[in-house]
Amino acid sequence: MKYEKMLENIYKIIPEKVKMKERFEMPEFSSFISGKQTIINNLADVAKQLRREPEHLMKFLMKELAVPGTVKGKKGILQGKFKPEVLNSRLGEYVKEFVLCHECGKHDTELITFEGARYKRCEVCGARSPVRSL
Ligand SMILES: [Zn+2]
């Protein structure tokens, strides 16, 4: 294969990958109320999409909603009755606080611990901002 042809093929592939990385779809909880508890069916899947630990996301919900809860397999269980819209609006706050970069708005970030403090670090622009520990 000629070198020019190879380059052409490479450039055909790259934009697709970039597009995929830039697209961010806000995940949604699927939940239902059972007795006095609220079961989030897809806690682990949502956390995975956000590249966060399910336990971290659960801790956030427990703190914001001021109720105890547990992670059980892929599910999250909250002690209390919460409507899906309440949970999803909290999820939006979580994403804003712990996932999206405060500088460039991208979601390609990771949580790191540096000198005992928690930071959100952006893989796109390199910005680092402190986040509260839950
Ligand atoms: Zn950034």
Molecular structure report:
With 134 residues, the chain is of the alpha+beta class. The chain contains 4 helices and 7 strands. The protein has helices spanning 3-22, 43-50, 54-65, 84-99, and strands at residues 31-34, 37-40, 69-72, 75-79, 109-114, 117-122, 128-130. The strands form 2 sheets. The protein has a 4-stranded antiparallel beta sheet with strand order 1-2-4-3, with helices on one face. A 3-stranded antiparallel beta sheet has the order 5-6-7, with no helix packed on it. The N and C termini lie far apart (55 Å). The model has no long low-confidence stretch (mean pLDDT 90). Bound molecules: zinc ion. Zinc ion binds at residues 101, 103-104, 106, 122, 124-125, 127.
Report the CATH C-level class of the largest domain: Alpha Beta
**What proportion of the residues form beta strands (DSSP E)?**
15-25%
Basic shape: globular
Overall SS class: alpha+beta
Spatial strand order of the main sheet? 1-2-4-3
CATH topology of the largest domain: Defensin A-like
The hetero molecules present are: zinc ion
How many distinct domains?
A: 2
Please report the distance between the alpha carbons of the first and last residues.
55 Å
Query: What is the N-to-C order of secondary-structure elements (H for helix, E for strand)?
Result: HEEHHEEHEEE
Average pLDDT across residues? 90
The CATH architecture term of the largest domain is 2-Layer Sandwich
- In this structure, how is the largest beta sheet organized? 4 strands, antiparallel
Q: C-alpha Rg, in Å?
A: 19 Å
Count of strand segments: 7
